[in-house]
Amino acid sequence: MTMFTQYGPSEEGQWKDGDRERYGDACVDRLNRFAPNFKAPVAEREVLAPPDLERIYGLQGGSIFQGEQGMNQMAFMRPTPDLAQYATPVGGLYLCGAGTHPGGGVTAASGHNAAQRILKDRRKSRRPWKRRRSAG
User: Fold this and answer.
1) In this structure, is residue 38 part of a structural domain?
2) Of 41, 99, 100, 121, which residue is the least packed, with the fewest Cβ within 10 Å?
3) In the chain, how many domains are there?
């Protein structure tokens, strides 16, 4: 099982000795309140803080979402307004994943949205009479 929590301190110095284990205990205890007997069979665990995620996986600031999702990174602005609709200026190259709207997590929504864009573009390319003529 994986438990993911968000917004832990991102700097190594902000995690003192024992903080990871105390945090892990708090998370397991919290889940145990809603799923009684959850805690008893846990034989082993590993607590990875944001600095660990940065060191092990190269995730800047330990963010699995490829950057914080502030207001400047929502909807039509993720990852940038020019790239927010999954297509790139390189023909046939599309973006999806945590860096695209609606961001990371396990919903697969960005993959679904990118696939819909690809299908839309493929349908357009099969209808030459619908293509816009370039001004020239």
Assistant:
1) yes
2) 41
3) 2
Residue 89 pLDDT > 80, yes or no?
Answer: yes
Report if pTM > 0.85.
Answer: no
Q: Do 52 and 101 fall within a single domain? A: no
- For 85, residues 6+ apart whose C-beta sits below 8 A from its C-beta are 76, 117
Structure tokens at 35: 């799923």
Same domain, 47 and 25: yes
Rounded to whole angstroms, the maximal C-alpha distance in the chain is 72
Report which of 45, 73, 50 is spatially closest to residue 62, judged by C-alpha positions. Answer: 50
Cα dihedral: 93, 96, 67, 84 (round 10): 70
What residue type is 61 in one-letter code? G
Q: How many residues does the chain have?
A: 136
Q: Is residue 6 part of a domain?
A: no
pLDDT > 90: percent of the chain: 49
In the predicted model, what is the mean pLDDT of residues 1-6?
Answer: 84
Q: What radius of gyration do the chain's Cα atoms show?
A: 21
Which residue carries 């679904």 as its tokens? 112
Q: Is residue 52 part of a domain?
A: yes
Q: Are residues 80 and 41 in the same domain?
A: no
